[in-house]
Design goal:
Helix content is about 65%, strand content about 5%. The longest helix is centred in the middle third of the chain and has 32 residues. It has a two-stranded antiparallel ribbon. With about 270 residues, it is mainly alpha-helical. The N terminus is likely disordered. It starts with about 40 loop residues before the first helix and ends with a strand. It is globular, with a radius of gyration of 20 Å. It is built from nine helices and two strands.
């Protein structure tokens, strides 16, 4: 949708100038401040930063890969903030490319945990090359083609991760650790609702933006809720991965919940 400029801003496109990103979300641009294009979408990205750091710091496995995964989620949150604040193509890459790197790290960790005979070095380099190639394609195109390439690549590996997390959940259930296995359902529910919000915000904006023709009296900022719910769902799945790693490696651990919603895992 076209940017909407506040009365206090000069005629143009706000502080950051013309929009060069391949996608502009449903939130109206520059309505709260001329320095942030999408106010709610920007600040909701902080949830990814905080939860990414939480995952990096609670790592009970002593495997550097899980710390790296948490930090990669933090970087995604930082990139998302910059992207939504500026709607510049260069900042869009700071959001999307780290997402590709994070999902590759997650795949490496789950595959090496679940398949003992896999060659870890070959797998690592295969994922590095794949990520580098997809990153080049993602950054090298623009417009709808760029958006499609990124979504196809990221969601393809995301489906692989869902299957691998389901396998981990099944093994934990068989071992009588249903309290840990239950993280899969919690994460899936959060992601399911978040994905529905993302799809509606992306494809049915005119019906939910609170403007003329909308079925809602105001914009409920579904993309911002996508950030929060997807971040929480991701934490559930990352902790599931940590718990499964500890189970496979015979590392004693405990799972706790903070305020019911937020899970926390630590070694005994």
């Amino acid at each position: 949708m076209a940017p909407i400029i506040p009365i206090s801003s000069p005629i143009g496109a706000g502080y950051w100038g013309d929009i060069t990103a391949s996608v502009d979300w449903c939130e109206e641009n520059y309505t709260w401040t001329p320095y942030i294009a999408e106010f709610f979408n920007s600040w909701s990205s902080v949830s990814m930063i905080l939860l990414g750091e939480a995952c990096a710091r609670m790592n009970p496995t002593n495997h550097r890969g899980f710390t790296l995964l948490g930090r990669s989620i933090t970087i995604v949150g930082l990139g998302s903030w910059l992207f939504h604040a500026t709607l510049k193509y260069s900042m869009q890459m700071t959001d999307e490319l780290p997402m590709l790197w994070a999902i590759s790290i997650a795949c490496y960790l789950t595959i090496t945990t679940q398949y003992k005979n896999v060659d870890e070095q070959k797998l690592k380099w295969a994922l590095v090359l794949w990520t580098a190639l997809v990153s080049l394609f993602t950054a090298g195109f623009s417009g709808k083609l760029q958006f499609f390439l990124f979504q196809a690549s990221f969601n393809g590996l995301s489906l692989v991760m869902v299957y691998l997390c389901w396998r981990a959940k099944r093994e934990l259930e068989e071992a009588g650790m249903s309290h840990v296995a239950g993280l899969f359902a919690r994460g899936a529910k959060c992601y399911g609702v978040a994905a529905a919000f993302w799809l509606v915000d992306t494809n049915l904006c005119s019906y939910v933006n609170g403007q003329e023709g909308s079925v809602l009296p105001f914009n409920v900022q579904l993309h911002a809720w996508w950030h929060v719910l997807a971040s929480l769902g991701l934490v559930y799945l990352v902790i599931l991965m940590m718990g499964h790693y500890c189970f496979v490696r015979n590392i004693p651990f405990k799972l706790r919940n903070i305020c019911v919603i937020f899970p926390y895992i630590h070694a005994n």
